Amino acid sequence: MSTPSPMARRITAVRAHALNVPNRIEAAGKVRETDLSVVICEIETDDGLIGHGFTAITEEQTVATAIREVAAPALLGADPLTREALWDRLCWLMAPRGQTGYAMHAIAAVDIALWDLAGKILGLPVWKLLGGARDRVPLYATCGFGFLDRDDLATTARDWVEAGFTRLKMTVAGEALRRRDATPLEEVIAEDVARVAAVREAVGPGPRLYVDANCNLDPVHALRLAQRLVPLDVDFFEEPIQRNDIGAMADMRARCPLPLAAGQNEGQSFRFRDLLAGRAVDVLQPNVTIGGGFTQAARVAGMAEAFAVPIANGGGWPFHNAHLHAGLANGGLVEWHVPAVAVCRMLFTDLPEPEAGTLALTDRPGLGFDLNHDAIAELANRPSAAGHGKG
Ligand SMILES: [Mg+2]
């Protein structure tokens, strides 16, 4: 364990806020109200600087407790700039046998807070600490949701193209594998084909389309759906198969030319290695808020570069992930996930606005945006929800 030099700053406090955030999606005149679970981590130093980190698509109380009771004691007194040492310490403490899951969410939130803090100490934005490859990232809008019918989807897609977004993602497969009704999967995917066709017809041949099954299909129906989406010029099919089964995705890639994407909820680097080495993906999707923060996402991006596989953001949280994709030479698309953006606008201040389907990074130190402490205090009293938001 490294000992801080006498001049080094020390970590004096680690806080975690478990939040169940109400979310209201409006599209084509329809409203859908949901909740999204997130955790905000704050790390404070002896000179009063505070870095903030974030994780989501998890159980917020579990992860916040892991940060407070397991990670915090290992961080107190440490030099906050020793990010590699602290990441390694937490990984051996919380996931010593390669476990993925809640621990990696906790480490992601801590790691992002340490990068925000490093930026504030050094006077640099995170994207420049990572390498400063570009100061603007391309966005794709995730705006095609299950509660919209075909006409709503077409209207929504046209609205987004008019707003300058020429890359659009929609969900498919609903919650097919965990459905409660008796609809055969064949009917579910037939409707998906009709929904994507309605969007393609609405926007014409130019805009790029992506679909995301959120791991809700078995291999045979995922392949059937992919084959029928090929004529609709879909650029990638995200998380097509349950549990992101690497062998099944590799088999699907060999049998259908529709590019596959996955990785948003992977926690450990070896899972990304296996996705790459198993030739299971065309686009790799590390998410800094889930897969071990910037420290591990940068390592994963390096692996992807060696395999000549592009990376893109899946799982949303664009304001954090934009730093990764701006910082690294092989950075790619960032997901303008409509519900996630709405949640961020409640929790943070000074967020950048998109322009013509892109997001500009600023030179403000760290992440470049701050916590809305009043909103966080108010939301902290809101009860936890059963289940959690999906990216
Ligand atoms: Mg996704």
Question: Layout of SSEs?
Answer:
Elements: E1 11-27, E2 30-45, E3 50-56, H1 60-75, H2 83-94, H3 102-122, H4 126-130, E4 136-144, H5 150-162, E5 167-171, H6 185-203, E6 208-212, H7 219-229, E7 234-238, H8 246-255, E8 260-262, H9 269-277, E9 283-284, H10 293-306, H11 318-327, E10 334-337, H12 338-347, E11 348-349, E12 358-360, E13 370-371, H13 373-379
Parallel strand pairs: 4-5, 4-10, 5-6, 6-7, 7-8, 8-9
Antiparallel strand pairs: 1-2, 2-3, 4-12, 11-13
The chain binds magnesium ion.
Structure characterization notes:
There is one protein chain. Helix 5 (150-162) packs parallel to helix 6 and helix 6 packs parallel to helix 7. The chain has 391 residues and is α/β, with parallel strands linked by helices. The longest helix is centred in the first third of the chain and has 21 residues, at 102-122. A hairpin with a 4-residue loop joins strand 2 (30-45) and strand 3. The protein has two domains: 11-123, Enolase-like, domain 1 (2-Layer Sandwich); 127-371, Enolase-like C-terminal domain (TIM Barrel, Alpha-Beta Barrel), CATH 3.20.20.120. It has helices spanning 60-75, 83-94, 102-122, 126-130, 150-162, 185-203, 219-229, 246-255, 269-277, 293-306, 318-327, 338-347, 373-379; strands spanning 11-27, 30-45, 50-56, 136-144, 167-171, 208-212, 234-238, 260-262, 283-284, 334-337, 348-349, 358-360, 370-371. It is built from 13 helices and 13 strands. The strands form three sheets. Strands 4, 5, 6, 7, 8, 9, 10 and 12 form an eight-stranded mixed β-sheet that branches. Strands 1-2-3 form a three-stranded antiparallel β-sheet. The structure holds magnesium ion. Magnesium ion binds at residues 212, 214, 238-239, 264, 314-315, 391.
